[in-house]
Amino acid sequence: MTPGKAYLSSDEIRPLARRSDLMGAWLVLHCWGVIALAIALFALWPNPATFLLAVVLIGSRQLGLAILMHEAAHSALFKSRRLNDWVGEWLCGWPIMADLHAYRHYHLTHHRFTQTDKDPDLALSQKFPTSHASMRRKFLRDLTGQTGVKQLAGQIAMFIKLAGDHDAIDAAKSQSAQAFKSNTLGRAFPVFIGVALAISLIGTWWWGLAFWLLPYLTWFQFVLRVRNIAEHGAVEQSDNPLQNVRTTHAGPIARTLVAPYYVNYHLEHHMVMHVPCWQLPRMHGLLLTKGLGDRMRTAPNYRAAMMEAGWRRS
């Protein structure tokens, strides 16, 4: 049973779950539009500050593409399954070297077995709470590109290992994040390179490296980790949907740089996973009106979520 049905009626869920092609198109257009505007900002005023801002904004929108692929994986971005799949692959997943179909298989396993031994994401959340020093090392590796280079090398190695072995690929889909990314690297990598080349053609030869590869290897990895920690780090390992996942409140700056497209409403998403992301704030409000606020695991901001996961632990 959908966890949310223990707290919301079908009549309450039904309007929340309505999908909108117009809103889905707007979200995708907005994401790519921010990327274009970030590059345009540097083109108009080229200096270290606009360069850094462009890298951060583009990295945050690469996370945005991942979030919109996640929406498409739940068939929540558009009304049509075919449109969800096409946009989710070509415009959201492949540009960041992820594959919607493999991700869907892996991610639905996560929803089915959240915070249990069968949860494929449990390895990510089991590390928390951790020490201040450990968090600092993790974030430093992310921001200096070490995590991104290591993961990219791992994807390539896994792709070579799994090439042609269909049984191994199927087994890996629900067991390893690295495996679901590596599964279709041969199709995603050309799109990733194509985006970088297009950016270089717009500007100069190094723009693709600076404004696609660099954000991917640095800020994208950092905010991806922050998102994972906020959602499932240091939460209750149980089947209680109000405590085994966290919603983090986000202001305008956090939504711009760390939590695009309502990804911070993760508790609500786990309760009814087919509710479109833009409806999650409304769903959060509905749960509060039912008096569930004190029972829900929430954080007032991302700093507090990081502290809860161990940021200030010695």
TrEMBL record:
| Organism annotation | Pseudosulfitobacter koreensis
Provide the protein name.
Answer: Fatty acid desaturase family protein
Q: Where is the Fatty acid desaturase domain?
A: 48-286
Give UniProt keywords alphabetically: Membrane, Transmembrane, Transmembrane helix
Q: Which Pfam families match?
A: FA_desaturase
Q: Which InterPro entries match?
A: FA_desaturase_dom, Fatty_acid_desaturase
Please give the superkingdom of this protein's source. Bacteria
Show the stretches that span the lipid bilayer: 24-45, 51-73, 191-214
